[in-house]
């Protein structure tokens, strides 16, 4: 069975629809049907039950999918690594960031990398909260610096680069905005903006908790999908947000106050990498990031 035929089988096993499979692989539905029939003839067993309305895996088809899928992934990873080795003498790293101070760290390390490896360059990309790990999963980035903790399959956390004190971004007219500092119990006094989308609950509890340490409910404010919505919503009086204290240096604007949080953990930023393993020169670049952070 050729690699392309395996890919067609696995895609149909995922989509369970000939048309969607063809569209996803940029081939015709008849090509999909021909390949599956050829596989069934060769193996002597039906892989799919097909009617005019549904497509379902047979038990042998399910077993074949379960055994082929990890092997297919390993083959693709091996091919990617081999191709990457061929580009190791020169190339371009793509690195992502979620905050401007992380972008500055990437730029400092990128300048040092170019000095040590003249054939290499680094292109940096802003990563939106609404698709926090998508670029890593899709192979668009080789690494990124983002908020921890990370609870995402297929993504591993590297070294922590920055440990930031936290602050509460508040509407300037809110009574807490005049305080020298606030504590986590004060969060019960103001709606807290929340990240939109489906995210692991421990991550949501860390960045947008639903209760104070003593169990008092924290009002829920509107949700957001990107950082740029947060100051607008806060300035309009819709709620508050827990941010890194240094955000006040980068995002000060009328109608918004930044008040330090005097308790709770720091907001840590670390290197995120694909679980499949680092691309060429990424380990060296991570070392430069650690040096730049120090």
TrEMBL record:
Gene3D superfamilies: Periplasmic binding protein-like II, Winged helix-like DNA-binding domain superfamily/Winged helix DNA-binding domain. The keyword Signal does not apply. It comes from the Bacteria. It holds the Pfam family HTH_1. Keywords: DNA-binding, Transcription, Transcription regulation. InterPro entries: LysR_HTH_N (IPR000847), LysR_subst-bd (IPR005119), WH-like_DNA-bd_sf (IPR036388), WH_DNA-bd_sf (IPR036390). Signal peptide: none annotated. The keyword Transcription applies. Residues 1-58 form the HTH lysR-type domain. SUPFAM superfamilies: Periplasmic binding protein-like II, Winged helix' DNA-binding domain. PROSITE patterns: HTH_LYSR. PANTHER family: HCA OPERON TRANSCRIPTIONAL ACTIVATOR HCAR, TRANSCRIPTIONAL DUAL REGULATOR HCAR-RELATED. Belongs to the LysR transcriptional regulatory family. This is LysR substrate-binding domain-containing protein.
């Amino acid at each position: 069975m050729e690699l392309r035929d395996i890919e067609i089988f696995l895609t149909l096993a995922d989509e369970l629809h000939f048309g969607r499979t063809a569209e996803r692989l940029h081939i015709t539905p008849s090509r999909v049907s021909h390949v599956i029939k050829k596989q069934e003839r060769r193996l002597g067993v039906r892989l799919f039950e097909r009617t005019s309305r549904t497509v379902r895996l047979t038990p042998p088809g399910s077993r074949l999918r379960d055994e082929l899928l990890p092997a297919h992934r390993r083959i693709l990873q091996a091919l990617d690594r081999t191709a990457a080795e061929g580009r190791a003498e020169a190339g371009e790293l793509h690195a992502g960031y979620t905050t401007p101070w992380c972008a500055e760290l990437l730029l400092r390390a990128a300048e040092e990398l170019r000095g040590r490896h003249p054939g290499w360059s680094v292109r940096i990309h802003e990563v939106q909260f609404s698709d926090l790990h998508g670029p890593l999963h899709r192979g668009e980035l080789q690494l990124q610096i983002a908020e921890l903790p990370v609870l995402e399959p297929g993504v591993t956390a590297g070294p922590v680069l920055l440990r930031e004190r936290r602050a509460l971004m508040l509407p300037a007219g809110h009574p807490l905005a005049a305080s020298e500092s606030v504590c986590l119990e004060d969060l019960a006094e103001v709606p807290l903006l929340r990240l939109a989308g489906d995210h692991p609950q421990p991550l949501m509890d860390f960045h947008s908790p639903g209760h104070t340490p003593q169990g008092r409910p924290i009002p829920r404010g509107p949700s957001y999908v990107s950082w740029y919505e947060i100051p607008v919503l806060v300035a309009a009086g819709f709620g508050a947000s827990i941010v890194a204290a240094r955000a006040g240096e980068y995002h000060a604007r009328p109608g918004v106050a930044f008040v330090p949080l005097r308790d709770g953990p720091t907001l840590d930023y670390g290197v995120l990498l694909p679980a499949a393993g680092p691309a060429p020169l990424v380990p060296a670049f991570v070392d430069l990031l650690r040096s730049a952070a120090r």
